[in-house]
Every structure is written in C-alpha cells, then in structure tokens.
Amino acid sequence: MQHEEQSVVEAIQGDKLALQQLLKQEKEKLYRMAYVYVKNEEDAIEVFQQTVLQAMESINQLREPIYFSTWLTRICINNAIAMLKKQKKIVVMDEIVEQLVDGRSEDLAQKLDIADALSKLPEKYKTTILLRFYQDFSVNQIANVLDCPEGTVKTNIHRGLSLLKQSIKGVYSDDRKRDFN
Amino acid sequence: MTEKEISIKSSLETILVPTQKLDQIIDDTLFNPPVQNKKSKKRIYQVAAAAVLILGIGTTSMISSPAFANFVAQIPVIGNVFGYFATDNYESYSSFSESVGLTQSSEGIDIVIDQALFDGTSVTLSFILKSENPLGDTLQIKGQPVVKGVDGKNTNLKFEYVENVGYVGLYTLTPNFESEMAQVSISWEPDTIITEKKEVEGNWAFEFAVSQISKEPIILDEKVKTDGVTVHLKELTVTDVSVNIEYQQLVEPSLLEEWEFVEAELIASDNLGNVYKVPYNGGSTDGSARTREDFNWTATLRGLNSQATSLTLYPIAQVSRFNTETEESESKHLEFDAIKVDLINQSHSLVEDPTIPTLPEEDLD
C-alpha cells in the first residue's frame, strides 16, 4: 500500500494522529497475515497488538518513509513467529474453517481451501508466498525483509506454490501473471 | 479461459477481520497504552532466558557498560559460538576453525568475528553482536559477507539471542568456487542492524583471510538415471567437520514437455545405521545446460559419525507439473541406484534398487 509520504514523515516525527491513520489503513492486511500464522482470532489479535505497540515505540527509528509498509510487515511477521514458538499450539483445521465464515458458497469453499492449505505450509514457504502474493513485495524486497539471497526467495516461492497446488484444486491467477523465476 | 481462477489474495479476504476491535487496539495503544503489553513483553524475556538454560550457558552476571577495551574479554562465549548450534551438527567446527578475533564498534553496537572455517566448499564464520541496551530476540543484518574474487552467492544466516550477551550467529557462504583455493579473503561490511526494537545504521567493516582445512577428495563421476532424470555424482570431499558432495541433475528435454519442475536431493546413511540429511547449499547452471532444469548442486552433510567407514548416498528427485485439464497438480517421486563410498580405501560401488532409508523425525522439515 502506498502511503502519503508526508503522513509517514509526520508519524516518524511523533505525530500520533498520523500514525493512527497509517495503522488503520494497514490493519486488515496485518491481521490477516497474523491469522494465517497463528490460526485463531485471539492470538491474531495479540500479534496485532504487539505489532502496533512496537510500531509506536520504534517509528522514530524508521529512516526511509517509503519503507513504512515493509517495516510494519516485518514487525508483524516477527511477532507471529515469536507467538508460534511460544505456544506450539495444535489447531484442528476444521476449527479454522468454522472460525473463518458461516454459510459458504462453492466459490468461497474453494477460497477457504486455499486459506487452509496456506496456513498448513511450512513457515518459510508461507512467509514468502504471503509477502509475494498478498503484500505484493518484489523478490528483491522479500530478500531484504528476510535477509536471505534472492535465489532462496525464488526457490521458496516455487516450492511453496508447488505444495499449494498439490494440496488443492484450482488455478492461481497470481501464479500465472508473475514471473518469479 | 474456462477454468476458475482463484487468487491467493482473494482467498485471504475470506478471513473475517474484527475491525472495531483492531481500531480500538490502535486507539488504546497510541493514546492510552494498556498494562497487559508489559506482561506480554515479560513472557518473551522468559522464553529467551529458558533457551539459555537449555543451551547450558550460565550468564547470570549483567555486563554493565563495559569499557571497550574490556569488552571482548568479558564475553563468555568467545571461542564457543559454534557450540550454540549443536543441533545442526556444528560442534566440531570450533576445534578446527581459525580464531579471527576482529572487533568493530559503531553506534553502540559491537560486532566480533569469533572464528572462521573454510572447508573447500563453504566458508563458515561465527560472530557475536552486542549492544549496551537489550535488542530483543529477532535480528536482521543488511550487508552480507562475501568471498572476494569469487562469483555466485549462496548465503545462510543462523543466530540465537542470548540474554546478557547479545546475538551469537553463523554465516555460511557457498559461492561458486571454480578453482581450488588454499586461502580465501572474506569481506563483510554490514551497514544496518535491524532488531524488533530498532533499526541502526552504522559502519562496521571486516576483512580477513581463512586457510582451507585439510580434505580428502574422492572422485565419484558416477551417473544414475531414472525416467529421464540423470543424477551425476561428481565428487565427495571429507573434511574434519563435514562431507561435501558435488552433483548435477540432468533432465531429458522430452521430460520437460510433460513435466515442469525437477529437483534432485540426497539422503545418506553410514555402515553403522545412522541416516543423515544432506541439504544442498545452492544450485547453479552453466553453459552446458541443455534444459532449464539442469543444475549443478553442492550439498553438505555435517556430524558424520567418526567411527563410520562407509557412506551410502541415495539420490531422490521430485518431478512435478500442473495439469490444466484436470486442474490438479501432479508430482512423482523418483528413486535411483545408490552409491556406496568406502571412506577407508576411497573406492565406491553402485547399489542397485536400494531401499531408501528414512530420516530421523527431528530432521524432517
């Protein structure tokens, strides 16, 4: 999401109202990313809360306003992974589907299949797929966020998509239109 | 286009968002910070402290603003960073590494390169990163170390946060060493340290040389083939800390008319019944590649039992594609003849139709 650079600058300088607006623009993406990791509302909310707290505490350290989204996403992923390490919860997949939505259509059921399959992917694949196709980060941006070579990012996207394809039916429009090799 | 397209993005939109609750959290956190956040933070520190106990490192005394001259002497893990990565079979690296002992300080963060080892395939360096203020338990470093004058870049970073010490970490660099090198020059100029608490730009710059440890290369030059995929096992090199294997996957062009992706990997077992994972360090293609899936790989086995006298390498491959007619992904698993290598007399032999061993559960991804 492109933010008004001026708003980010104001937030960096301590304007809490500016930061409030920026966080409200990002809240849905942050919450959904957290949910895919922790798989329940209560923990996703805690991850979100930690993310907001850390954003408030360290926004003054952000040097480049254009990296606001990248920086915030990194905080969210770190918190979600830290939460998983703490808990190592076992979540029955049926519960996730129940929590997601009531009364699904056929199309929605397919989407739920993808959300389920995504949440079951190993952590490294899940992270790269979410950053690439949900946050629309480039391979280069992902390599910077995760501090790994671009080749590793490409491999993980490739493998993650292959695993997704193996576990569900359907064609991914995202997969088709992006050249990730 | 008749098939139904489903995007990852729209699938995530099915996750219901408790909008009001999130707005409330943002408002409360910014303008009326809740008390319970402190509780959450405390839990993170307790987890970090527990990790220290599990690793058996007791660092109970707080290092309070040490003078820089005393800084290195007061770090209790100098010379023992590899010990933190025992589960990845790095324990033996400490004994065979060269001490580097370089320290750079910038913006209140000190980086010490502790030890380094070059086994002919990879350079592994251990480091400690310390700040006077606690940094939290996540770390990202912008600016990776490189092997000077060598192209290609496969870099891996592992780290642990140790309370009262800082971060202890390992970098593994596996570039494309096209010729034999007795010594390599390493350059590392990290420019930004990112933790969960802050982002610090600074000037840390290291340059040092590492000599190659002794090794025993065993030429294999053995090709095994199954269903259009050939695995060419080129060379196996035994060092005091690792076994490195160089191999190539070669894919028949006709196979790629039906299938999209091919990935060959290795599993190994010794004559004592131990089974090892042999993760690859990275792959590359060269001018001789006939297909897009022809790759050269190097892979490294760590923690070989010192009593082992032979090692058997089991190539396996995953071949996959997406079938647009059935709208289903399909894959097949290929197994190959294995190569048994006698580590004493350095000979090798083919094992036809072997039973592929199963990795211990803790080694599975």
From TrEMBL, chain A:
UniProt name for this protein: Sigma-70 family RNA polymerase sigma factor
UniProt-listed Pfam families: Sigma70_r2, Sigma70_r4_2
Species in which this protein is naturally found: Paenisporosarcina quisquiliarum
GO molecular function: DNA binding; sigma factor activity
Residue ranges of every copy of the RNA polymerase sigma factor 70 region 4 type domain listed in the record: 113-162
Keywords, in A-Z order: Sigma factor, Transcription, Transcription regulation
Example of a GO biological process term: DNA-templated transcription initiation
Every RNA polymerase sigma-70 region domain range: 24-89
Family matches, as CDD domains: Sigma70_r4
Similarity-based family: Belongs to the sigma-70 factor family. ECF subfamily.
UniProtKB/TrEMBL annotation, chain B:
InterPro entries for the chain: DUF4179 (IPR025436), DUF5643 (IPR040680)
Assigned keywords, A-Z: Membrane, Transmembrane, Transmembrane helix
Superkingdom of the source species: Bacteria
Tagged with keyword Ubl conjugation: no
Chain segments annotated as transmembrane: 44-63
Pfam families attached to this UniProt entry: DUF4179, DUF5643
Chain ranges of the DUF4179 domain: 39-131
Domain spans labelled DUF5643: 218-337
Protein's UniProt keywords contain Transmembrane helix: yes
Residues in coiled coil: none
Gene3D superfamilies found in the cross-reference section: bacillus anthracis domain, Conserved domain protein
Annotated protein name in UniProt: DUF4179 domain-containing protein
Lineage of the organism: Bacteria, Bacillati, Bacillota, Bacilli, Bacillales
